[in-house]
Amino acid sequence: MAGFKTLDDIGAVGGKRVLVRVDLNVPVADGRVTDATRIERIAPTISELSGKGARVILLAHFGRPKDGPSAEFSLEPIARATAEVLGRPVGFASDCIGDKAADAVAAMKDGDVLLLENTRFHKAEEKNDQAFTEKLAANGDIYVNDAFSAAHRAHASTEGLAHRLPAYAGRTMQAELDALEKGLGNPARPVVAIVGGAKVSTKIDLLMNLVKKVDALVIGGGMANTFLAARGTDVGKSLCEHDLASTSKQIMIEAAEAGCAIILPTDGVVAKEFKAGAASQTVAISDMPADGMILDVGEKTVKSVTDWIDRAATLVWNGPLGAFEIEPFDRATVAAAKHAAARTKEGKLVSVAGGGDTVAALNHAGVADDFTYVSTAGGAFLEWMEGKPLPGVEVLKR
Length: 398
Ligand code: 3PG
Ligand code: MG
Description:
Layout: E1 17-21, E2 28-29, E3 32-33, H1 37-51, E4 55-59, H2 76-86, E5 91-93, H3 98-106, E6 113-116, H4 123-126, H5 130-137, E7 142-145, H6 156-164, E8 167-169, H7 171-185, E9 191-195, H8 204-213, E10 216-219, H9 221-230, H10 245-258, E11 261-263, E12 267-271, E13 280-284, E14 293-297, H11 299-311, E15 314-318, H12 331-345, E16 350-353, H13 356-365, E17 373-374, H14 379-385, H15 391-394
Helix pairs in contact: 1-2, 5-6, 8-10, 9-10, 11-12, 12-13
The structure holds 3-phosphoglyceric acid and magnesium ion.
């Protein structure tokens, strides 16, 4: 892949100690991993390196521990889950530096896989501290970063190590960068973006960047209400950030200047309470009842969204169109997701989606596998959509 060194460039790894930064920040309930997607995504890199006789040493964080080591944030249960996904043993060392790590690494044979304990048990990790980076580097000959979803962090294990050891992008990082390049870097046009979710306030930078890059921007979810209100529409009791009216107007002005169409809902599914199965009706946005809340976009809006998807060569999607977690307010998100998946299957659309809620929504619609690429990254995907350089990616550039 242009611009980045990948495993294709790594040369002979037999007998070498390869430090692989992975993202094992997976959801866990009652000590069990409830969604192993991130573990599945790193399997190709681990298998490839191990298959070539490398000693594969995994570095990862888990959660946001504040005060050093704790059982709560230990990676040990995740080592077991990783072994299950890989179908092979995965060793574990109870520290990522020092004697415990060194002893476990020294005991490895060619092809072995070892996971080191949570890098964030050391405060120096998040400070990208040089002495700490040296201690991590002491266990490896080569560094591979396969954690795009942690690449927005300039930490020792995500950025520092790449300065210290020969550094390469792993297969998942590579796939992610490839997909993102197709999504916004150098996309087939027209490009349509769908941005949803609750709040404009968390996505101002993203919207400002997108209007300069895409041909049409569909705004859905609670954040659409803020735009509608800014345009003078009464949104009743809907979620709305009235204090962001001028920001929303500015985004619409920038869009007009850049020739980016903004698509706002023309109808909404309205209820008096926010709960599953609440009585609802579809109304034109101009006829909002004063005591109603818009919980999803209506059918006319869905039609306009799917029309835009039909016109698009590339779709970038972040955030659901409605309150998809509760029925029946998942309908628009599901319909649009299915439509995009079908166009992708027909070979007419490159579809790239990411962000926590988005993946959950696409899984709910049953179409995550039919998109061109679904990123498992949350914050990193957003920062990429905002057009910000990601430290863990920048450092891998040739
Ligand atoms: C994530 O879960 O988004 C990544 O693993 C990064 O985690 P962080 O937000 O705690 O840095
Ligand atoms: Mg996060």
